[in-house]
# Entry
Amino acid sequence: MADPDASPDPPPSAGVLIDGDSHLELLGPWASPDVPPYAATAFTAAERRRIHLLHYLLRGNFVLTVAADDEDVAAFMDGSRRCLDLAAHYVRDDGALPVPDWLEATDAGIKDILRPDHPAVDDVRITVTWDQRIYARSRPRSREILVSAVTRAHLRSLNVWFWTSWNHAMRAADPKDTGKLATIRAMLRNSEGFTLPLLAFLVSVYRDIDLSRLPCPRAWDAESFRLASLWTAMQTTFVLAHEYAHVLLHGDHPLGSPRLEAEADAFAYRVLLAFDRTGFTPDGVRPALRWYFRLLAIERSVGQVINSHPVDWIQEDIQCRPLAFLHPTVGDPNAAYFDAAVGNAAMVAKHFLREAGPERIREYSKDICAEFGTLARPTHDRRAE
Ligand SMILES: [Zn+2]
# Structure
C-alpha cells in the first residue's frame, strides 16, 4: 500500500523562490491597474537604460529553481513582464532610485555596531548609483558612501550560480573518486559550462549589456538559495563596512595604499562578525569572502583582456585580502576544507579563461554582447556617476 505521506511531486512553490533580501518593497503597485505597459510610452535612451536596470533588480525578487517546470517558467516570465512595467512606472514618475530595504537594513546594522566607538557614524549617508558595475566607494570629505544598485543583484546571481554548480558537480562526481576534491575534479570536467555564465556577468560591467536580458541562474533548491543569500549578505556587509572604515578612520588620506586597504579590511571583518545575523560566523564568512575576492580578481583580469590592456592574472593585491582574516587556529577542519574548495572552484574559472587566451575571451565577450544585446549609452551619462 502506498504511503499517503510520500508525495512524489514537489510542492508547487518549489519551482519559484522569493528573494526576501531583494527589492520586494518596490513591488507595492504590483496589482495596480494604473501601471501602464512599458511599451505604451516613449522613453529616451537614458530612461531606457534605467528602466532595464530597474527591471533586472525587480525580476531578481523571483528565482527559478532547477526543478521549475513549464508552468513555473511561464509564471516567472509573466512576473518579469510585470516588473518591466513597474520599472517604467518608477522611472517615468520621478526617475529616482530609492535606497533599497536590504541596503537600509545593512547600513542600520553597521551603524549600530559602530556607534559606541564612532558617534560620527550617523552623519554618513548612503547614495545608490545607476552604474552598471559592482562597487561601493566612499567620499570621506562629504561623509558619503556610494553603492551601485546592481552590486547586490550581481553578487546574488553569481552566488546562486556557485551553489548550483557546486551541487551539480557533487552529483556528477565519479563515485569511484573518493578524494576530498572529487567535486572540484567534476567541475574541472565542465569548466566551460561553469565559467561562461560567470563571464556574462563579468563582461556586463565593462560593456553596455542590456541587464534586462542577462541570464537568471537557477537555484539548486531552497537550501542552496538560502546559502547563496547568506553569502550575498556577508559580501555586501563587508563591502559597506570597508567603506565605513575609509570614511571614519582615513578622512583626507588618499585611498588605495595597501596599508589603508588592509586596515579597512580588518575593520570590515570585525564588523561582519559582530553583525546581528544568523550564520555570520568565521567558518561561514571565510568561503563567502574567498569567493567574492576571487571573483573580483577574475573580473579585473577579464576587464583588462577585453579592453586590450596588459593582463595581470595574479591580481596579488586582491588575492591576498582574505589572508587578513586567517585566524590563529584553523577552526573546524571541514570548514577549512570547504573554504579551500571554494577557492579551487574559482580557480576552475580562472584556469579556463587563461587557457582560452585573450583572443578567445574577446570573442566570448562579443558573443555575450550579441546574445544579450546592448543598450546605447547617452553621451551625458558619465561612467563614474
Ligand atoms: Zn578600500
Observations:
- Residues 242, 246, 255, 261, 264 surround zinc ion (CB under 6 Å).
- The first helix runs from residue 45 to 59.
